[in-house]
Amino acid sequence: MNRTKRYFITIFSILFFAMIFFMIHRFFIQDNRDVKKVKNPDDIMVLVNRKHELSPDYVPKDLVKPKVRFSPNMDSEKKMMRKEAANALEDLTKAADRNNIKLYCISGYRSYDTQNNIYQAKVKNAGEKEADKYVALPGKSEHQTGLAMDITNLRGIKGILTEDFGSTKEGKWLKENAYKYGFIIRYPKGKEKITGYCYEPWHVRYVGKNAAKDISERNLVLEEYLSKNNK
Ligand SMILES: [Zn+2]
Q: Both 19 and 96 in a single domain?
């Protein structure tokens, strides 16, 4: 009797785990099927995320190097941004300087290949699960648009980027003032399910002054803003 019981429990457990595995697998496959190719990569309002990917050969045509404070030892590709965003970033950091807020720019444009290297390095380091949580797959990173920049403070350039930046005086200033120069905090706290990314107080995205003001006043993320505007 005991043996029969054990037999049934074993069978039941196998079926149960097989079902869970099947559901996860199915969800993952479905997820990949949903990915759309970005059709307007040069648009300032372009949406790039886990479901909207850029083609591997997309490179913005108007990349320039903004005159801002960079983290030391940065390679030159990462200093680049699209012209309009670069000008706005200069205005933003000048305003910060006037308020004694010392911001450091640490990562702007990243090519498809660069993003791939970053992703692969993270997988090697921390495993696929952790990598997926924090690092975008190549083609799905906003950094490839040339419209995003990771910004931090002196402490941030010495270590790794952490959520704590959001509660430093530099992080708070950035959150309160970015919109005035056309930037949004792209991955805010509480919107992880919509953006698909964890809270990143350091990642700003250029969308232009009007959209940035609207997005921050209405406490939206880009995904919500674009769907509300039917774009
Ligand atoms: Zn970033």
A: no
Q: Is 163 a catalytic residue?
A: no
- What are the pLDDT digits (tens) for 58-110? 999 999 999 999 999 899 999 999 999 999 999 999 999 999 999 999 999 99
Q: Is 17 left (phi over 0), alpha (psi -120 to 50) or beta?
A: alpha
Name the active-site residue from 170, 200, 223, 224. Answer: 200
Q: What's the whole-model pTM score? A: 0.84
Q: What is the pLDDT of residue 175?
A: 97
Give the start-end residues of each E strand in 142-199.
148-152, 183-187
Split into its structural domains, the chain has a count of 2
Going from the Cα of 141 to the center of ligand 1, the distance in angstroms, rounded, reads: 8
User: Which domain range does residue 102 map to?
Assistant: 37-228
